[in-house]
Specification:
Blueprint (H helix, E strand, L loop, with lengths): L8 E4 L5 H9 L4 E5 L10 H8 L7 E6 L4 H7 L5 E4 L5 H5 L5 E6 L6 H7 L6 E4 L26 E3 L8 H8 L3 E4 L4 E3 L2 E2 L1 H15 L2
Parallel strand pairs: 1-2, 1-8, 2-3, 3-4, 4-5, 5-6, 6-7, 7-8
Antiparallel strand pairs: 9-10
Helix pairs in contact: 6-7
């Protein structure tokens, strides 16, 4: 058996509880996402973000998720974040202004050209690809047709949308993304992660990487 020379990175998103952060870190998760959009059932306030982010050790990336929010609000949150995730209709110029690494989430609506998007958002560290539902910026719990992702793209791909321990091995094998992003698929309820689901997700990603 030949071992893969790459490893699929893992991001757990929608963290709201200290215990879930500890569990994610113990499992070796690479990045933890904090939802700063108040309409989300997984959102946290800037004050809660400060408390939770302080618990995250070195070499685990703290990601803040924003949806068409003001530059002033984002600046307020920046001291507690390593990476910004823009999940709305933000322009490239808006994303660039904060002097911080960032990724751009794209909902896979009909007609979306990912090659064009990779050019338009050329300053992004990666493109996060999520399922499309009208009026919902993310967190739908739905998958999309992974075959729509080009085999070669100018930006690393972070795969999101409806991922669970049951389908993540197939997702890694079919897409070979740089990273995967999960929220609802490891939850007991919105914002409350479930320990066994978290562990199973990480385990199945690792098993899929051995190929």
């Amino acid at each position: 058996m030949t071992l893969s020379v790459t490893r699929t990175r893992i991001k757990f998103c929608g963290l709201t509880r200290p215990a879930d952060i500890d569990r994610a870190v113990a499992l070796g998760v690479d990045a933890l996402g904090f939802v700063m959009w108040p309409q989300s059932r997984r959102s946290v306030t800037p004050e809660t973000l400060a408390t939770l982010a302080a618990q995250v050790p070195a070499f685990v990336t703290r990601v803040g998720l924003f949806v068409d929010q003001s530059a002033e609000f984002i600046e307020q949150c920046l001291p507690h974040l390593d990476l910004i995730q823009f999940h709305g209709d933000e322009s490239p110029a808006f994303c660039e202004q904060f002097g911080r690494p960032w990724i751009k989430a794209l909902r896979m609506r009909d007609g979306l050209d990912l090659h064009d998007a990779a050019t338009i958002y050329g300053g992004a560290q990666a493109l996060l690809l999520d399922a499309y539902r009208p009026g919902v910026p993310g967190g739908t719990g739905e998958t999309f047709d992974w075959s729509r992702i080009p085999a070669t793209l100018a930006k690393p791909v972070i795969l999101a949308g409806g991922l669970t321990a049951d389908n993540i091995a197939r997702a890694v094998n079919d897409v070979a993304p740089y990273a995967v992003d999960v929220s609802g698929g490891i939850e007991a309820s919105p914002g409350v992660k479930e320990a066994d689901s978290m562990a199973a997700f990480v385990r199945h990603v690792a098993q899929a990487d051995i190929r």
